[in-house]
Design a protein that fits this description.
The complex is a heterodimer of chains A (164) and B (426). With 164 residues, chain A is of the alpha/beta class. Chain A has a single domain, classed as Aconitase, domain 4. Chain A contains eight helices and seven strands. Chain A has a seven-stranded mixed beta sheet with strand order 4-3-2-1-5-6-7. In chain A, a hairpin with a 4-residue loop joins strand 5 and strand 6. In chain A, helix 7 (143-151) packs across helix 8. With 426 residues, chain B is α/β, with parallel strands linked by helices. Chain B has two domains: 5-270, Aconitase, domain 3; 277-425, Aconitase, domain 3, CATH 3.30.499. Chain B has helices at residues 5-13, 39-48, 73-88, 105-111, 143-152, 177-188, 210-218, 234-243, 245-250, 306-309, 312-322, 340-348, 351-358, 408-417, and strands at 24-28, 31-35, 60-63, 93-94, 120-123, 137-140, 154-158, 162-168, 197-201, 227-229, 266-271, 278-280, 288-290, 301-305, 332-336, 361-362, 383-386, 402-405. In chain B, the strands form five sheets. Chain B has a five-stranded parallel beta sheet, with helices on one face. Chain B has a five-stranded parallel beta sheet with strand order 16-15-14-17-18. Classes of the chains: A alpha/beta (164), B alpha/beta (426). At the A-B interface, helix 5 and helix 8 of A face helix 2, helix 3 and helix 5 of B.
Chain lengths: 164, 426
């Protein structure tokens, strides 16, 4: 499966408090969360993001709180993929669990610019910057994580295991 | 090949004789935890997946603490959702407001004897790593992981590699666990321990009380750590003999030690005597400075409390330093004992009177301002020095407000001086 979209670019250590501030955590409704996504770091994000767009950031993306509301907010905003140099541990688990596609690729994270058109293939891990013509390969997922992703998240995976 | 302390606990909980860094394992859990923000989404997932019962009603812990006492109708609905589930499933360890034993999750759970050495715990709260102080493996997860663990009593882990943190010497006057962990985060950065364990060791460990160790383990997540674990010693055993005399007397706990030939990714040595009174300036916990270097920074608010620094020792230190002193004009100082037990102790010992005489606000236990929930939100341009754990952009309020992190002594001194200050100044 592949996705294609325009890039929103952020730096290192994007924390879950700026992805979705705690003042909005009184509801876990995805559309409510999406309407406040990234507002403390990029107030124009919510108005500019279009379905399919791609988020690119530096190291340690999603650090801080364990709030699953963060990957839910990003997913519900229409973002089809987050590419980062690295992900904070809990965010990594949460993204996989809720079915937000992520790719770890420091080279792509460093080279891709804001506004670039990017295409990424989840099966091969190949990330193409269509604007600059550069190509990158993301770190492959461990086999076990791939199974969760292929099942569509942790819940369907757990279900299929208990049924199987 | 030898295993670290964390690896040994995980191996035992996975029913394996040996694990290696990078292995993916399925581990049995002794406790699973959620709060009023993370549990309601977990309940939705739990019910959505068709789960009927929790795996063990004595091993699921639910704590209303983030937006409590509820700040608005929506947060009241979250608490109600968790309360109703806890009642329907007869959850033993649900802690209602005002009850003995209630308070901020990471303050009450060790204090109520729910964690003992060798246990494995996950919690849908990033500061679940706190319990490493007791020689347990504990780490934070999200709501979906919580939901699946509530149903199955197990979860998957990638076995982490470890950073060995060797503590030497004795901390200086007024230097607390908070200064030590801020100092470490300043050294290695907010992703310095990403995906890894921090394993504390060395003779300096014995200089640290249990409350100090809980503060240190609590902030392992702020440098990306999966967990932050301490060896078990006399101080640990003394603590659990009081927190859970029944399990202690039965020997229902397990002391793990790292193998002599355990493999560490790296080793860091910290001379505790050289750790200064430390603050983390906006907007990252790794942005550390000696408090003495930034005394020109004025403040509008002080927060003393949280799962990092709301324990009995913290509130006691605050009271001793505030005795006979006043909060500076133009500064609000909010003191939040971390649990009902700590609150009562502060009442019985006269500490609350000291805070009141000093001009502090005294709050019931809540996470409140730490995460920008309520009970001390900052306006645009305001600055707070806080004993909490995060100082990200907008963490305590307006996107253009600032949080400086510190230990309790620096927070009290700053409240009295109206700027960043050290206790020797008061």
């Amino acid at each position: 499966m592949s996705v294609k979209g325009r890039v929103f670019k952020y730096g290192n250590d994007v924390d879950t408090d700026v992805i979705i501030p705690a003042r909005h955590l009184t509801s876990a409704d995805p559309s409510h969360l999406a309407s406040h996504c990234m507002e403390d770091i990029d107030s124009s994000f919510v108005n500019e993001v279009k379905a399919g767009d791609i988020m690119v950031a530096g190291e340690n993306f999603g650090c801080g709180s364990s709030r699953e509301h963060a990957p839910v907010a990003i997913k519900a905003s229409g973002i089809s993929l987050v590419i980062a140099g690295s992900f904070a541990r809990i965010f990594y688990r949460n993204a996989i669990n809720v079915g937000l596609p992520i790719m770890e690729c420091p080279e792509a994270a460093a080279a891709i610019n804001k506004g670039d058109e990017v295409e990424a293939d989840f099966d091969t891990g190949v990330i193409k910057d269509l604007t600059t013509g550069e190509s990158f390969t993301a770190k492959p997922f461990p086999e076990f994580i791939k199974k969760i992703i292929d099942a569509g998240g942790l819940v369907p995976y757990t279900k299929s295991k208990s049924e199987g | 090949m030898g295993m670290t302390m964390t690896q040994k606990i995980l191996a035992d909980h996975a029913g394996l004789s040996e694990v290696h860094a990078g292995d993916l394992i399925e581990a049995r859990l002794d406790k699973v935890l959620g709060n009023d923000v993370t549990t309601p989404p977990a309940i939705k997932v739990f019910e959505g997946m068709g789960a009927k019962d929790v795996f063990d009603k004595d091993k699921v812990i639910m704590v209303p603490d983030h937006f409590t006492p509820n700040k608005d109708i929506k947060s009241a609905e979250l608490s109600k959702c968790m309360r109703c589930f806890a009642k329907a499933h007869e959850i033993t360890n649900y802690f209602e407001l005002g009850q003995k034993g209630m308070g901020i999750e990471h303050v009450i759970i060790p204090d109520n004897g729910l964690i003992l050495p060798g246990d494995a715990i996950i919690g849908a709260d990033s500061h679940t790593c706190t319990y490493g102080a007791l020689g347990a493996f504990s780490t934070g997860v999200g709501s979906t992981d919580l939901a699946c663990a509530m149903a199955s009593g197990s979860t998957w882990f990638k076995v982490p590699e470890a950073i060995k943190v060797v503590l030497k010497g004795k901390p200086g006057k007024y230097v607390t666990g908070k200064d030590i962990i801020l100092h470490l985060i300043g050294m290695i950065g907010v992703d310095g321990a990403l995906y890894k364990s921090l394993e504390f060791t060395g003779e300096g460990v014995h200089e640290l009380s249990m409350d100090q160790r809980l503060t240190i383990s609590n902030m392992a997540i702020e440098c990306g750590g999966k967990n932050g674990i301490f060896p078990v010693d006399d101080i640990t055993l003394d603590y659990i003999s009081k927190s859970n005399p029944e399990r202690f007397s039965k020997g229902d706990y397990k002391v793990y030690e790292a193998d002599e030939d355990a493999v560490y990714e790296s080793t860091i040595e910290i001379d505790l005597a050289a750790v200064p009174l430390t603050v983390a300036l906006p907007h990252l916990p790794s942005n550390t400075k000696a408090a003495s270097e930034v005394k020109d920074m004025k403040i509008d608010q002080v927060v003393i409390g949280s799962c990092t620094n709301g324990r009995e020792e913290d509130i006691k230190i605050a009271a001793k330093l505030f005795e006979g002193k006043k909060v500076a004009d133009g500064v609000r100082c909010i003191v939040i004992p971390g649990s009902q037990r700590v609150y009562r102790k502060a009442l019985d010992e006269g500490w609350l009177s000291i805070f009141d005489d000093a001009g502090c606000v005294i709050s019931t236990p809540t996470c409140g301002p730490c995460l920008g929930g309520h009970m001390g939100i900052l306006a645009e341009g305001e600055r707070c020095i806080s004993t909490t754990n995060r100082n990200f952009v907008g963490r305590m309020g307006h996107v253009n407000s600032e949080v400086i992190l510190s230990g309790v002594p620096v927070a009290v001194a700053s409240a009295v001086m109206g700027r960043v200050a050290t206790p020797d100044e008061i």
